[in-house]
Each structure stands twice: as structure tokens, then as C-alpha cells.
Amino acid sequence: MAWLLIVIAGIFETGFAVLLKQSETFTKPWPTVGFAVCALISFGLLTWALRGLEVGPAYAAWTGLGTAGTAVVGMAALGESASVLKLASLGLVVAGVIGLNLSGVTA
């Protein structure tokens, strides 16, 4: 259950990162509100998940999922550049998160 919370929190982290960009330094109201809501949900779920997980792997998974998700949304929906190196690097981030999860961390 705690790992599911981390995955959902990572999705909301992706949301708050993308909306932060779209808020244009908090000058656009709706993206700013969306950013704040996503950030609160993401941090809340992370906090809840940390009750049953070790902080290192949980935080690494949360940030890794948020990083990968944000990069994918940027490339797929925001017109950011995609390259073989960028995609391979994202694969390494995901592999690192999976490796930490398989390293014996339990919840």
C-alpha cells in the first residue's frame, strides 16, 4: 500500500512540475492553483507513505517517478526535444528506482 502511495505521489509531482512551468512564475491563476493542489497532494501522500517505508528508497522513488514523468510529459505534450540519450537516461532513472525497490526494502 505504501508503494502505491509513492506511485500516486509521483504522478502528482509530475503534475506540480508541469503546472509550475505553465504558471509562468505564478502569473497565471489556474496553473498556479493546480500547482499548489498537486504539490499538497504529492507531499501529503509522500508523508503518509513514509510511515511504512524507509526514507531513502521512498524519496528516491518519488523523485525518480516525478522526474521521469515530467520529462515524458514535456516531450509528449509540451514540445520539448527528445533524443536517444534523454530516453536512455530516463530508463536509467527508472531502473534505479526499481533497483532500490528490489534491494530488500519492505513495506
UniProtKB/TrEMBL annotation:
In alphabetical order, the GO MF annotations are: transmembrane transporter activity
Pfam families per the UniProt record, alphabetical: Multi_Drug_Res
Annotated membrane-spanning segments are 33-50, 59-78, 84-102
Instruction: Specify the domain of life of the species encoding this protein.
Output: Bacteria
Q: Which UniProt keywords apply?
A: Cell membrane, Membrane, Transmembrane, Transmembrane helix, Transport
Compartment list:
Cell membrane
InterPro entries, A to Z: EmrE-like (IPR037185), Small_drug/metabolite_transptr (IPR000390), Small_multidrug_res (IPR045324)
Query: Is the keyword Cell membrane in the record?
Result: yes
Coiled-coil residue spans: none
Q: Gene Ontology terms, cellular component aspect?
A: plasma membrane
Membrane topology reported for the UniProt record = Multi-pass membrane protein
The family classification in the record reads: Belongs to the drug/metabolite transporter (DMT) superfamily. Small multidrug resistance (SMR) (TC 2.A.7.1) family.
Q: What is this protein called?
A: Multidrug efflux SMR transporter
Its organism's taxonomic lineage begins at: Bacteria, Bacillati, Actinomycetota, Actinomycetes, Catenulisporales
